[in-house]
Amino acid sequence: MNIYVRRTVVVESVPVIQAVHVHLFDLNGLGPPGLAMLLQRADNGQWGCINSAISPGESPRDTAFRRVNEMIGHCPQFLIDAQRKLRVDLGQCYASISVFAAATWGSQVPVLNHESRRYRFDIPNEAIDQIDSEEQRISYRWALHAMRAFEKAMHRVVPGPPATILSSPRYLLPVFRETARILG
User: Which of 1.10.10.10, 3.60.130.10, 3.90.79.10, 3.30.360.10 would CATH assign to domain 2-183?
Assistant: First the structure.
């Protein structure tokens, strides 16, 4: 399997599957990036992120929200688009994967569906060593970078402790705009 890293994907005459990788970060009052949450797949035992093909009529963001809810039993507090796409050569076609970081809050205990065997929390810099697939390690780096950009944006925009952003939604839009500017 070949992995290509590009900002935009233009492929003609080869089928392209649109997909998402969603990397979970549990803030639990710690502020970004928090702890990385990894899921172990029930079918092959590999550790990694939530991934899914995008359903017809859904945006990548809608798919990311839906799949997080399906996989851990609740929606994320918010999603951060890492503004990068991963292109994976699958032989007969390519996968174009949008990458997201999803923030959850520790008081929401994950309720795993049948696709996952168990979950674990790791320090963000150590979590990458637990991820089994190379393309998920690449997208994890991007998602972690997005969470760190969010952290920088929070410190620039929000007065007070990091938990302020979750208790006061008025800060979310300015922080997301600043995050996009940092990632841009």
Answer: 3.90.79.10
